[in-house]
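agent> Task received from the user: take the single chain below, predict its 3D structure, and emit structure tokens. No templates, no multimer pairing.
agent> Plan: (1) validate residues, (2) run structure prediction, (3) serialize to tokens, (4) report one or two observations.
agent> Step 1 OK, no nonstandard residues flagged.
tool_call: predict_structure(input=
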Amino acid sequence: MSKNRNKALENIDVNKSYDLNEASKIVKENSFVKFDESIDLAVRLGVDPKQANQMVRGVASLPHGTGKNLKVLALVSADKEEEAKNAGADYVGLDEYIEKIKSGWTDVDVIVTMPSIMGKIGALGRVLGPRGLMPNPKSGTVTQDVGKAVSDVKKGKIDFKVDKTGIIHASVGKVSFDASKISENANELIQTILKLKPTAAKGTYLKSIYMSSTMGYGIQIDTNTI
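)
tool_result: status=success, residues=226
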């Protein structure tokens, strides 16, 4: 095992699960790399994502943001361009960006658009879909209130979706955050997921939660403390 992995295991009882506050402190202490790692949660749910009535998808507004400077593209009509720019969108326009995307350009993190524009964007599904960039009304990225949507993303609004194995992966901050802010962000995401429990899901809904930094060891969260 690597030197850093050995150092990390000195601070962790692999047979124990921790509450969010403890886990947040340990993840910070176990960061030994020279860059500001992301803090990620992996939440395993007791759902069958193959069933449409057990799909879990939503948005969470992290109280302390993600720590990432997300690049936002606003695909809007001319009368909404100023609103998008004032809200902090990095790229604003329509036809010129649609053509760029058709050519393979996807150097953005989130795309915000309007219902009236979705007809034009539908053709971009093959490019945007696999990258998780397709705007969606459920995530708040297809709306008439373009300014609010852009502002929310910039402040720390994240979109999450259960994958085919029943796990939700999401970033809840950076190692440079105070442990309390990491914990509060993580709790906000988990509480949002709990509210989205499908009525068709049977048995234990929240099966397991692990917190880790980009290069760090996963810390198991005690689901009984949530």
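agent> Step 4: summary for the user.
The longest helix spans residues 179-195.
agent> Done.
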